[in-house]
Amino acid sequence: MPWTSRKALYRALCATEKTIPIFARDWWLDALVGAANWDVVLVEAEGRVLGAMPFVRNRHLGAWWLSQPPLSQTLGPWIRPLAGRESERLEWEVRIMTDLIAQLPRFGHFIQNWHHSRGNWLPFYWQGFHQTVRYTYVLDDLSEEGRLWEGLRGSVRGDIRKAQQRYKLTVRSDLGLESLLPLLRMTFARQGRHLPYPEDLLHRLDVACAEHDCRRIFIASDPQGCLHAGEYLVWDEMTAYDLLSGSDPALRQSGATSLCKWESIRFAASVTRSYDFEGSMLEPVERQLRAFGAEQRAYTRVWKTRSPLLKVALLLLGIL
Prior knowledge:
globular, GNAT family N-acetyltransferase, Acyl_CoA_acyltransferase, BioF2-like_GNAT_dom, Aminopeptidase
């Protein structure tokens, strides 16, 4: 099937299928890498898509890579759910994934993180792919605010009260990306790093998310107008994602980061079902996310490198 036909089918699927995560939506991929720089393989019957796997295709370190965009927690295969016995569901997944793998273009390196709901990767293992387990933290049910509040560790509740009562912080959602960017820059500068993504990329994504009414920026401000911390939240019909967060290192003791996260959770309950903190493998970050009462979820990084020399280079660069 020509790539233009595949993309047209996939775009139509994204317009109607609510179980496709936001990171795999066509417009999200367009915003982050451009419409010409991503593709998709499909399994379809009579015009109905049964399975799909989008990917970003670019050339890096002398090889073609099939991967995923920046600022995207996951990508990976989407498979139309099949009702019935467990054995039938697994057989269905094996058939769809085997067909998707067979359609992939030639590559030197494949690497994608899969959504935590996609646990079965056996057909990829049978085809010589590898996997690594990673973790995120998720609040599955946002329906009861009181239960969510009680689920917070005492130190987090204390930070939120301190931010509100001692520092008189309020969380604003009327400020745009330009107000959040300095907080992001300061967060990475404190670590001796620059922003790991171009600012024009953030602007493109922000415009696309605003057009699709699926983002909200939360910024904690004090009575003097100083901005302490901020969160960038995106969501689809199933889950909200804590995409970006930043704070002023000089104002870290105010509890603003906890307050922003709490307000973003409260808001997420009005637009979707669950909240994904986009958990980090870094120990200090993991401790902070765990303190919000979220449950650990394992997700899979699937990869395959055809060249031994390229594999050594990726290991040295810390990519694998």
